[in-house]
From TrEMBL:
<feature type="domain" description="K+ potassium transporter integral membrane">
    <location>
        <begin position="18"/>
        <end position="500"/>
    </location>
</feature>
<protein>
    <recommendedName>
        <fullName>Potassium transporter</fullName>
    </recommendedName>
</protein>
<keyword id="KW-1133">Transmembrane helix</keyword>
<feature type="transmembrane region" description="Helical">
    <location>
        <begin position="407"/>
        <end position="431"/>
    </location>
</feature>
<feature type="transmembrane region" description="Helical">
    <location>
        <begin position="383"/>
        <end position="401"/>
    </location>
</feature>
<feature type="transmembrane region" description="Helical">
    <location>
        <begin position="255"/>
        <end position="274"/>
    </location>
</feature>
<feature type="transmembrane region" description="Helical">
    <location>
        <begin position="21"/>
        <end position="40"/>
    </location>
</feature>
<keyword id="KW-0813">Transport</keyword>
<feature type="transmembrane region" description="Helical">
    <location>
        <begin position="286"/>
        <end position="306"/>
    </location>
</feature>
<feature type="transmembrane region" description="Helical">
    <location>
        <begin position="438"/>
        <end position="457"/>
    </location>
</feature>
<feature type="transmembrane region" description="Helical">
    <location>
        <begin position="52"/>
        <end position="70"/>
    </location>
</feature>
<keyword id="KW-0406">Ion transport</keyword>
<keyword id="KW-0472">Membrane</keyword>
<feature type="transmembrane region" description="Helical">
    <location>
        <begin position="177"/>
        <end position="197"/>
    </location>
</feature>
<keyword id="KW-0633">Potassium transport</keyword>
<feature type="transmembrane region" description="Helical">
    <location>
        <begin position="463"/>
        <end position="483"/>
    </location>
</feature>
<feature type="transmembrane region" description="Helical">
    <location>
        <begin position="209"/>
        <end position="229"/>
    </location>
</feature>
């Protein structure tokens, strides 16, 4: 009996969480009936045409929604995280391409600083060797992942615009005198309010998301059932695939062009995968398979049944499908649902930008947590206002809706195609799926999504250029930042200070050791940054305890706690340590909200105390047994490795004294000196990088470091 109660409790909890996913995960997907038929170009359609269109939408939802995303993609999680970048992370780690350039040792085997367990080499297939040996292949993989990220950000611009506009446009049906300009103004006002409240976070209102989306899903499904019964009860015969072939055979090119509108029926499907880090696989699958999928299948069937019985209404908006008795309640619910759908994509854009910033692929912007209980809920003021301006601009410039639909179709189809390509690589490299199954998966989905892409590309001149323009600008910013960081790290590795150089530098009698604890931030681990030499020669001093600190961003979702802060001693200099602080793309920079300095200093104390144990066991019998297996030279080496307890105690005492004297954080504020010898490409890209670098935020405030403790050391790097 207790077992049955426990099982019932688990199922109840799973169903409750699955219900909560309605408002967070499926906002864009479940509001797609608002606009899909508005963007399908039809000229004097017949009953068979409508049956063919519904058959296309049914099989698109089934194959892409159910088979690809709910069944296959959700299995390709990266330690519970989903989305395009998680696939890139998963692939890179499996191929041992796990570091961003700004934190990678030039020679990991000889690096004096700690290494991660993620650096272990795995078995290599022929495909892995291609990526490891070809920089072009690695850059192509990075470009595909970046394009997917840019398209998702573009989704965060277009979804609020098209969802809110489609919902507000319903006011024109009962009031034909209302002009499109009024709809634009009202939509703009709703969007501005939506973006302005982002800084408060979604936690305070998120409890309303699931009820709103639940009410929306249930109401449109009931309206769909009513429409089927009243207008065309035999609509479900269209699930037979031969209606698709008949549709294309009869309409040819015109039928192909309708795909630019039908692809919108799967809008938001990427959220099935992208929000995997917020909800587990089973709850997303339950919510989609038992709520969203049947709701959309029935709703589109009802819309199609209505249009079959009202063939002259083929350019009708969503609200013509709604019975007049419940028109205004549906208007209110659809507007609220559109706002929730917009909120979901805006939050996703914040998360993507946060990942890109942490992995050093995007200029640093302010990212703050808006919820103490929900780790993934973040907000970026700069990103928020840019999204708001672009969303409002889309409505004001392309407010008739057709161009917005064309732009939206490009985003939807390209993101799906990118996911298909990355999932195929996951099947080959990680899952080792049999070639027959890989070929079946790739051929089916690449053909389907490739046909969709070809159809929406035909609309490039009619609004389809919008996401390309947005993605090009974002990609140019990301590449410019990445290229500048790459050149900077290359310069530092070329001009690094070795351990011998450190000894020579500190042996200068004019260099004094001053009281205090210094965090000296560096981008490299194999050696010391040239900024340090510039600092010591200029200041003629070095703090009593100095930790050369590297923020190391890993291509993993989260770094294990025991790997978060790693220390080692550098050379024979007293009080000089190497420190690596590691983060994954789903980690936060503030060490779970606790004090940054105390975490690091506590880890340093533990490192010093651990070294006091030496390398021999404490039990005399165990010591004798271990030494009996060694020759004289090895015994001498073991004894020389033992640390003097008095020295350890003195080291701890010096550390406490340095902390009491004060903490200081030193980082290089380096710039490129672009000389006449630079090529035109370097001049353009490095100048662009300098503009980005001059206007982005410092990394130290993101760690919670008080500004009075920060010192920036300026230095010019020769480009």
């Amino acid at each position: 009996m207790l077992v049955w109660k426990a099982a019932a409790g688990r199922w109840a909890e799973t169903l409750l969480v699955a219900y909560e996913t309605l408002g967070v995960v499926f906002g864009g997907l479940v509001t797609s009936p608002l606009y899909v038929y508005s963007f399908i170009p039809l000229k004097s359609p017949t009953v068979d045409d409508y049956l063919g269109i519904y058959s296309i939408m049914f099989w698109t939802l089934t194959l892409i929604g159910v088979v690809k995303y709910a069944t296959i993609a959700l299995r390709a999680d990266d330690d519970g995280e989903g989305g395009t970048f998680s696939l890139y992370s998963l692939l890179c780690r499996s191929m041992n391409i796990t570091e961003t350039l700004s934190s990678r040792p030039s020679n990991p085997k000889s690096s004096s600083l700690p290494r991660s367990i993620y650096d272990d080499t795995q078995n290599q297939t022929s495909m892995v060797k291609v990526f490891k040996e070809s920089i072009v292949a690695r850059r192509l993989l990075l470009f595909i992942a970046m394009l997917g990220m840019c398209m998702l950000i573009g989704d965060g611009i277009l979804t609020p615009a098209i969802s809110v506009w489609s919902a507000i446009d319903g006011i024109r049906a009962p009031f034909p005198s209302v002009s499109s300009s009024v709809v634009k103004v009202l939509s703009t006002a709703v969007l501005v309010i939506l973006f302005m409240v982002q800084k408060f976070g979604t936690s305070r209102v998120s409890f309303m998301f699931s009820p709103i989306m639940g009410a929306w899903s249930l109401s449109i499904m009931l309206v769909g059932i009513y429409s089927i019964i009243r207008h065309y009860p035999s609509i479900f015969k269209a699930v037979l695939p031969h209606y698709i072939f008949r549709f294309f055979w009869r309409n040819g090119k015109e039928g192909w062009l309708t795909l630019g509108g039908t692809v919108l029926c799967i809008t938001g499907s990427e959220a099935l995968f992208a929000d995997l880090g917020h909800f587990n696989r089973s709850t997303i699958q339950i919510a989609f398979l038992f709520a969203i999928y049947p709701c959309l299948v029935v709703t589109y069937a009802g819309q199609t049944a209505y249009l079959i019985n009202n063939q002259n209404d083929h350019n009708a908006e969503f609200y013509n499908f709604i019975p007049s008795v419940i028109y205004w309640p549906m208007f209110v619910v659809s507007t609220l649902a559109a706002i929730v759908a917009s909120q979901s994509l805006i939050s996703a854009a914040f998360s993507v930008i946060k990942q890109a910033v942490q992995l050093d692929y995007f200029p640093r912007v302010k990212v703050v947590r808006t919820s103490l209980s929900k780790e993934g809920e973040v907000y970026s003021p700069e990103v928020n206002y840019i999204l708001m301006i672009l969303s409002v601009a889309v409505i004001l410039i392309f407010g008739d809706g057709k161009d917005m639909g064309n732009a939206y179709g490009v985003v939807v189809s390209l993101v799906m195609l990118i996911t298909t390509i990355l999932l195929t690589l996951v099947m080959i490299i990680i899952w080792r799926t049999p070639p027959v199954l890989v070929a079946l998966y790739f051929s089916v989905f690449f053909v389907i999504e490739g046909v969709y892409v070809s159809a929406v590309f035909n609309k490039i001149a009619e609004g389809g250029w919008i996401p390309f323009a947005i993605s090009f600008i974002l990609a140019f910013i990301m590449f410019g930042w990445y290229y500048g960081r790459q050149r900077k790290v290359t310069y530092e590795l070329t001009n690094k200070i070795t351990l011998d150089g450190l000894g020579v530098l500190l042996s200068d009698p004019s260099v004094q050791r001053v009281p205090g604890f210094c965090f000296f931030y560096t981008n490299i681990q194999d050696g010391l940054t040239p900024v340090f030499e510039h600092y010591v020669k200029t200041m003629k001093s070095l703090h009593q305890v100095t930790a050369f600190t590297t923020l190391r961003y890993r291509l993993v979702p989260k770094v294990a706690p025991h790997e978060r802060i790693l220390f080692c001693k550098i050379g024979q200099q007293k009080g000089v340590y190497g420190c690596v602080i590691q983060y994954g793309y789903a980690d936060l920079l503030n060490l779970e909200g606790d004090d940054f300095v105390s975490h690091v200093t506590n880890s340093l104390r533990a490192h010093i105390q651990d070294s006091s144990a030496g390398r021999l066991p404490s039990d005399p019998a165990e010591i004798q047994q271990k030494l009996s297996n060694l020759d004289a030279a090895q015994i001498q080496q073991e004894l020389s490795n033992l640390d003097d307890p008095a020295e350890i105690q003195q080291e701890l005492s010096n550390l406490e004294e340095a902390i009491s004297a004060g903490i200081v954080h030193v980082r290089g504020k380096t710039r490129f000196h672009i000389g006449k010898s630079c090529g035109w490409f370097d001049k353009i890209m490095l100048a662009f990088y300098e503009v980005l670098h001059s206007n982005c935020r410092s990394a130290l405030p993101a760690l919670g470091v008080p500004l009075p403790q920060c010192i920036e050391v300026g230095m010019l790097y020769e480009a």
